[in-house]
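ARCHIVE CARD
SHELF: 3
SLOT: left
DATA:
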Amino acid sequence: MRFVRFGPSGAERPGALDRDGTIRDLSSVVKDIEGAALVPESLDRLRCVNLENLPPAPANVRVGACVGNVRNVVCIGLNYSDHAAETNTPVPAEPVVFNKHTSAVSGAHDSVICPPGAKKMDWEVELGVVIGRPCWNVVQSNALDHVAGYCVVNDVSERAYQLEMSGQWTKGKSYCTWAPIGPWLVSADEVPDPQALDLWLDVNGVRRQRGNTRTMIFSVAEIVSYLSRFMALQAGDVIATGTPPGVGLGHKPPIFLQVGDTMRVGVQGLGEQQQRVVAFDQEMAAAWSESERRT
């Protein structure tokens, strides 16, 4: 199944795409596309729903993040050897782990906000993994049994915040809107091999990133198993699994995002995102606060 969440920010409704690509409203069936809906028993029930009997979403409705109430966004850095090379970084012996704050989660087509003073904003197309069955110390051979589905993630970053300031990467990764997720959450049964997916990202119509998940240093199964050694992964947790080469930092000279730029981001079989970079203003902060108050 291809799950979506649609409607105004902070008031999204659960949905799924029918065979014709129409969004059908799942509100009468499930409260939201979030942790409780993503455990195996719930997904089995949802697969039995006749989507054609459900009302369609309004035309041209906003599509929100494909997972709601995300409690944890865990990211893997430098997980493609050619990306490590372009950033002049040694290939890691173990997964590089960091977090994005959950306030960074946004809809696939929402604007990406440039903070005041940011100079080195960058893009990163990634395969997103969404946990369904909770896991803690799971062995690699069983790890994929704990995956509910897959989605597109754009791990927007500010390289000066990430690399030129002291401390950890999180502050260069966590600004509001810097984790567009979706448009769809595609259930794992429709992705037979997560290590055989093309990824791409365009900036202003120019192809900047292209890659395939087969060149990951650490596979999805390895990542899920590895993370579960250090944390109990919960249903609805999102894992961003790393980016292929072509990030702005890797160009010579580097190329960074500017206000007005547009990114188009995709993963094979999981849909495409599109975001425009906009400047921060206080109205955005007020609107975000209001949407948070409604949730």
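SLOT: right
DATA:
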Amino acid sequence: MNNYIFVVSAPSGAGKTSLLKEFLSTDFGKQNFVVAISHTTRLPRAGEINGKEYHFISVENFEQMISDNGFVEYAKVFTNYYGTSVIEIDKLLSESKNIILEIDWQGAIQTRNIYKDKCKSLFVLPPSLIELESRLKNRKTDSVDVIAYRMEQAESEISHVSEYDFSLINDDFTESVKKLENYFRDNIQ
């Protein structure tokens, strides 16, 4: 069996993280996939643990890693940096793991350019922009200004869906998890 890097992107609030968390709790997900942990300069949200959800580092450390070519991909999103380290990806590939990268469309392009046929991509869409805004408000993690900015960015992000191998509309959570699992099954065998 080959191992791949699966890039999963979505506008903020589309449900990407929840879908992946549920998928990775299945036997198939646990046995065949691992999420690469990204670095970020943003502050941890309540309950987030350094080294689990993200590697939380300073802007200075992040910029030093950029200078050292330490990232497969990175981007400045809103006011913070996010990136996936070369060391993390190389380690997981050497362990013959299928890797899931939760990254934006800019990072997807960078990753595909490096890993070519080892990279597969999936874009998670919300059922509508109205539902997306409702989800952002209901999760109560961002200010009104941040939600407004995320909504402004959502249309631009969604415009890149055609660059992905597969897209999934997350309108029914249980069905979306099944579709996600089927996509992964079909692409590692």
